[in-house]
Amino acid sequence: MLTERRISTAASDLIRHEISVLLVDDDDQYAAFVRSVFDETTSLIVDLRHVRCLRDILPALQTRAFSVVLLDVNLPDGNGLTWLRDHHERLEAAVVVLTGNPDYSLHDEITESAQDFIVKSEIQPDQLVRAVRYAADRERSRQQLVKSREYYQSLIEQARDLITVVDEHGMIVYQSPASRAMLGLDAAYWVGRSLGEMVVPGDRGRLDAMLARLFSGESESVSGEFGSRHSDGSLRTLDIVSSRIASVGESRRAVCNARDVTEKRLAEEALRARDEQLRQVMKMEAIGRLAGGIAHDFSNVLTVITGACERLQDSVASSMPSAGADVSTILNNCRRAASLTRQLLAFSRQQTLSPQPLNLGQLVANSGRLLRPLIGEHIELRMEIAADAYAIEADPVQIEQVLLNLAINARDAMPSGGSLLLRVANTRVSEEFARSHPPIVAGNYVLLEVQDTGCGMSPGTKARAFDPFFTTKGLDGTGLGLSTVYGIVKQSGGFIWISSEPGQGTTFTIHMPPTLAIPVATETPQPAARRATQHATILLTEDDPDVRHMLATLLNTAGHTVIEAENPERAIESASTYRGHIDLLLTDVVMPGGTGRDLARKMASIKPDLRVLYISGYPEYGGSSESGSVLEPGVPFLAKPFTRDVLIQKINEMLG
Q: Engineering a disulfide at 561: which of 109, 448, 482, 537 sits with its beta carbon 3.0 to 4.6 angstroms away?
């Protein structure tokens, strides 16, 4: 008998969940997907009919009754939303809107007659089934409520929302069974109590004012969100909508529909935080591209100015000492300008890196000798370095620059003294942390924390801390220190965040991806001669005429023979017709008509033993990786601007 009752119950459930669905979609492939989902589900029986155009909807509805209409937005003969707004009064079926565009706003685009909103690319089969079932249930409930007051009562008893009826004094006279699930207490507990007891004390004044507006006739319907304490102690957020209903005798009544929107509000807050972080990333990317373009053009200008000043200095140093001093001043300022250019490139992630397996803990420990005199004796420098910290792949010079800039920032935040902590350890980023801190992904990382006990940052300062040229130091700051840190960390594949409150100090948290490569000790390079030690023939390819002329003059002065070409095509022609031996190709990377790498590959077939030295004002092109910003070991490269001595030294090293 028990088995028969179970079978009977299961059969009745299937009958209760049998619905008819009209799918309006011109995408036959998606229609086939919907049909397969309904065919495979065991939770309900679906009778599906498919039409492709808006004009076919009303004729289909006249042939039979449908429980749910799945309505696509973009159809061959019009917009589904427009059609719905024009015909919703004629419909006796639930409407679920379908779209392939996730950017539609639910509040702005969906009319009140639509039951649900589905993004095709995001919906899962079980979600589609659930959405259709819920839409059909809601529509059926609406129709039955119109027909039967008795069913209205049964609907309240089964509703997932909490239905509460109060009198004009705010006393609860009825509450639905959803009280147990939503608040943890049976409905009988609340009957006879004040509605204000359902919400936290801080919200009771707002709730009383809302009911007062309702019973005074000022508003026909009132709503608001209120905090409520569950019996387990957790805080819930209830969205309460209240409306007047028929009085009972002389007692005026109102019904309050409460929905638990706790998870929804938490999700919205997380989404807002994520959107804000993504907007910050996009802003930094845009500023970085602008800074990189400026730095490139400025690098070419500085290359010409520096070369011309070096030539002028050779001419006037002995005969005109005062002029020589002026030239030295110009060169010094060129070096300062070049330093600013490098900082701009670091921020825009377009500087040239020489990454290598690196023991971050050892590098941080060794940096103490440099940082202690820098921060001063009034600041205590502490280090916590895990002995088992993974190795990372990074440019040690640039990581030292990160430590230096962060230490200077900490020093300036602690004029009266304090403590600076450097911590290196392995860490595991969880999925939850990754979701709230895009674009990092879950996994193992090496953690570098730089924590000070200084004055901290306001929210506004923290939001702009990495912006180039933003400074709180007035005329004494360049505003490039932290932006340089940001660029180096990002270009090295890491992630950085700031945690700071006014008066609570600041913590910079850096996550670097680990590497399995083993760090090796680097050899100190031997100094090279300033001038060329041998005469060589150099094919110079540079599209900027000023830069090309200046480099040719410098090389000729150093004793080299120079063949000039303004583009790759001209370079190949010159190399093909030149009867002598060409020792070196000195080429820009990005030029009209081709790249330096393409030129080098073509030249290899003409001059197999030709050495190649790349130069560029876009240092990111110095590499051969997919991003182009990391140098492959052994690729000779000079980033503009460079001095005469650096150029001659590099050529000497290559010609050996």
A: 537
State the Rg of the chain over Cα: 36
DSSP category for residue 140: H
CA distance readout (Å), 204 to 218, 226, 347, 503, 641:
19, 9, 51, 35, 68
pLDDT, greater one: 389 or 351: 389
**Cβ(503)–Cβ(458) below 8 Å:** no
Q: Which amino acid, residue 298?
A: F
Q: Which amino acid is at 643?
A: T
Q: Report the relative pairing of strands 172-175 and 162-167 from DSSP bridges.
A: antiparallel
Question: Residue 258 corresponds to which amino acid?
Answer: A
Q: List Cβ<8 Å contacts ≥24 apart for 85-93.
A: 85/111, 87/57, 87/58, 88/112, 88/113, 89/113, 90/58, 91/61, 92/61, 92/65, 92/143, 93/22, 93/61, 93/65, 93/66, 93/67, 93/68, 93/69, 93/139
Find tokens 């990160």 and name the residue. Answer: 402
Strand partners of residue 261: none
| Omega of the bond leading into 545 within 30 degrees of 0 (cis) | no
Is the CB of residue 223 less than 8 Å from the CB of residue 257? no
Q: Which of 196, 199, 43 is nearest to 125 (CA)?
A: 43
DSSP three-state, residue 620: helix
- The conformation of residue 56, written as its DSSP 8-state character, comes to G
Residue 405 has pLDDT above 90, yes or no: no
CB atoms within 10 A of CB 81: 18
Cα gap 533→69, rounded to integer Å:
85
CA distance 377 to 379: 5
Instruction: Count Cα atoms within 13 angstroms, Cβ side, for 110.
Output: 20
- Nearest Cα to Cα of residue 483 among 335, 281, 343: 343
Cis ω for the linkage preceding 439 (within 30 of 0): yes
- What are the tens digits of pLDDT across the range 245-258? 888 777 888 889 99
Helix (H, G, I), strand (E, B) or coil at 37: helix
pLDDT tens digits for 549-605?
A: 889 988 988 889 999 999 999 999 998 888 888 999 999 887 888 888 888 888 888
Question: What pTM does this model have?
Answer: 0.40
CA-based nearest residue to 187, from 169, 172, 209 = 172
